[in-house]
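User: hey, got a sec? need Aspartate carbamoyltransferase folded
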Amino acid sequence: MNRHLLSTADLRREDALLVLDTAEQMARLSDRAVKKLPTLRGRTVVNLFFEDSTRTRTSFELAAKRLSADVINFSAKGSSVSKGESLKDTALTLEAMGADAVVCRHPASGAPHRLAGWVHGSVLNAGDGTHEHPTQALLDAFTIRRRLGRLDGLAVTIVGDVLHSRVARSNVWLLHTLGAKVTLVAPPTLVPHGVSAWPVDVSYDLDAVLPASDVVMMLRVQQERMSAAFFPTEREYSRRYGLDADRAATLPEHALVMHPGPMVRGMEISSEVADSARSTVVEQVANGVSVRMACLYLLLGGADERDEREVTR
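Assistant: Yep! Here you go:
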């Protein structure tokens, strides 16, 4: 792997499979009495979050601690950033602290890429604007492979607010790299410009696509990023693009329903479907720790023979 994890488009197939295979080993730790490895002892991981986050920040923190790293949680609120400090000045401060890895979430697309040019440690993109969220895509792929046994040849349908979704972008590139066929389903107003250059099919008819889908990934409508009306009403959106029990019944018996969270129940997905046996929502959260452990482990050079014996024992 490269020194940073900024975009799933940068991952070769062998890189992505290495992360998934390593995450599988990390997941075995949950069956042990002591759920920690000494791999990153003496290393410092900084969680640098300029946007609110619960699942991602906590997941990265737990992942680093399970690898015995020291963790610094840096929130923009209440820091010098709120007083006008620039991203570069913040980066230089972290560099002076000796950060070995910086996990960055930022409202501006491309911010982690800029950060990677200013620090010597590894930078992991935990979500930048509407651009990408690579570890979310990796944990989604990990969850699919665990449930269905493969990714090659699967039909994955991503539904909803694709325009504002960094999760959708990261999943499109990663799933394509891993051999899945991706179809985007959204209102025309929520399909990004330039999507013709993406390795996807586009449909505006959810009912037509569901019967042939192995995986349906629902997206939250990100109204906080919208400066105009992208659809008439929430009820109309739900009627055309929401996944309820009747629509879920048209899926193949083995098909999975996914959601990166947070879910808006009753709008993009019904509670009946979100809590059903085919839903992987809770698994995705749990698998996030294993996948983020794998990313930190590989990026920070933890894979020596002694540590591999500890993981696989």
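Quick note: The chain has two domains: 8-131+288-312, 134-284. Let me know if you need anything else on Aspartate carbamoyltransferase.
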